[in-house]
Amino acid sequence: MSGGVSRLASVNLQVHDLTVNYGAHAALDEITFSIEKGSSVVLIGPNGAGKSSLLRTISRLLKPSRGVLYLGGQDLQKIPLPALSRTIAVVPQDTAIDFDFSVEDIVAMGRYPHLKRFQKEGDKDREVIATAMRLTGIAHLASRSAINLSGGERQRVIIARALAQEPEILLLDEPTANLDINYQVEFFELVRRLNRSSGVTIIAAIHDLNLAAQYFDCFILLSGKKIFSLGRPEEVLTADNIRAAYGAETVVQRNPLHGKLLITVIGKNGSAAEKQESSGIHLVGGGEEAVPLLSALLDAGLRPSVGPLTREDSGHRFAAYHGLEVVTLPPFSPVYDSFHRQHLAMIKKARFVLIPSIPFGTGNLRNLEAVEEAVTVKQLILFLEQTPVAERDYCEGKASLLCDRLIREGAQTFREMPDLLSFLREQKKPGLP
User: 275-427 falls under which CATH superfamily?
Assistant: First the structure.
């Protein structure tokens, strides 16, 4: 996909200087782009940016005020409607069905562009209809009246009708808005399969940026009736672009499970916890096991220091975002003496020293040793032991021995996070030391 004009031989759709008006109101303003045959393109942008208007213009429900659209080198407005219906199928936002047709009858309507007047469906048509219902999981509803369906079932019927058209281009306007999450995933897996195996061009308008990032290769970000950004996910889904188009602050990173972009929306003015004073709490170590406890502490109005952590640690990313005081280690390094001294100083400043339910190995055993070395009788050591330490000890029992020694010397253990938080709230009440 490109912002300019590509060669007609390799282009499915060209949009050149397109302007669309609703009366005196502009829905799209002089947009230009091209989509190659077989592409998978998603339209994103805030409400009112023009996503649905663009889809409606491509399907010829809206007429351009200025500019032109070319489909396979032909002016879209001059293509006969029967031919256009064999080429483009639409799944709209509104899936209302007002007539008492069976589900199979509704899906069969997708075959009308392929039939002559008064011609009945043949074996091939019936096979296509059955396949469309099977792929969308509605075969068991074939004889059911369409007006008695749930919103999600009705959405899948409309999707099946579009598939029955066997289109070259499939336009999707918020196609999974009424679907449960399992059907959302199934639907986009189906769409991706159609795109990759059959070469169907997909053009979809979607609000969910994470779903879009997971299933689409090309992005068009619309804002202010114009194209704000166009290209690969990495080029379009940046924190700067999202801020400019949506007015939202986000963190954009890779999903560790499938490697696609993951967009997390954050507060414009930062967490309320960032404005709080230090709570005299230090949390030892980090890792993803510690993040829920860090989050719960901030939610409870308790602002801890953290560490030692490497920059790659998920706990470090959390602490850095919330502006927590943290001992930062170089990547893949042990706790060198200089960082050990920083950690000792941080522990000595704390009233409470929290040790979360994290694994211990040779790389972070020194953090436990620092607790034993630095803590005085005026400090409380609190273990969150959701899993027995023996099951998290990867240093030949040394961590277990250290923890047992600390507990014998007065450290307290909590099995559940709410109990630990309740204890801290009680201890932090005004008037208590």
Answer: NAD(P)-binding Rossmann-like Domain (3.40.50.720)
Q: Which two tokens stand for residue 208?
A: 């969910």
| Helix residue ranges per DSSP H, 322-364 | 337-349
Q: pTM for this one?
A: 0.76
Establish whether the linkage from the previous residue to 308 is cis, with ω within 30° of 0.
yes
Tokens encoding 218: 């090309």
Q: What pLDDT, in 10s, does the model give residues 316-373?
A: 888 888 889 999 998 888 888 999 999 999 999 999 999 999 999 988 999 999 999 9
Structure tokens given for 193: 């399969």
Residue 81 phi, psi dihedral angles, 5° rounding: -60, -40
CA distance 183 to 186: 5
Q: What is the pLDDT of residues 170-191, one digit of tens each?
A: 999 998 877 788 888 888 988 8
Give the CATH superfamily of 8-266: P-loop containing nucleotide triphosphate hydrolases (3.40.50.300)
Residues 379, 164: Cα–Cα separation, whole Å: 71
